[in-house]
Amino acid sequence: MITAIVFVKADVAQIPEVAEAIAALDGVSEVYSVTGQIDLIALVRVRNHDDVASVVADRLNKVAGVTSTETHIAFRAYSKHDLESAFAVGAE
């Protein structure tokens, strides 16, 4: 599984609509609105690098209201906090 973190700048007047459109794309697992130099962070989880290109270059970049993106490929995951907490529910 390949994880790509995509920083998205969007038209300020369309941020909620852009976020929803990106979240609806196959391969996008999560979209966060954030503070700072970018407007949204999208997590893309796919099987291979060609799929990253398909999601980001072919679809995400073409969502109306997206003005620019910056994509980072994750090499390793060091925190399993989310998985551990999900499986720990009701374990006590």
Q: Spans with pLDDT under 50 lasting ≥5 residues?
A: none
Order of helices and strands: EHEEHEH
**Mean residue pLDDT:** 91
Helical proportion? 25-40%
**Helical/strand content category:** alpha+beta
Overall 3D geometry?
globular
Strands across the major sheet, in which order? 2-3-1-4
CATH homologous superfamily descriptor: Lrp/AsnC effector binding domain/regulation of amino acid metabolism (RAM) domain
Q: What is the CA-atom radius of gyration, in angstroms?
A: 14 Å
Count of discrete alpha- or pi-helical segments spanning 4 or more residues: 3
Number of domains: 1
Major sheet: size, sense and barrel closure? 4 strands, antiparallel
Please give the number of β-strands. Answer: 4
CATH topology: Alpha-Beta Plaits
Distance between the termini: 31 Å
* Relative strand content: 25-35%
Query: What's the CATH class, please?
Result: Alpha Beta
CATH architecture: 2-Layer Sandwich
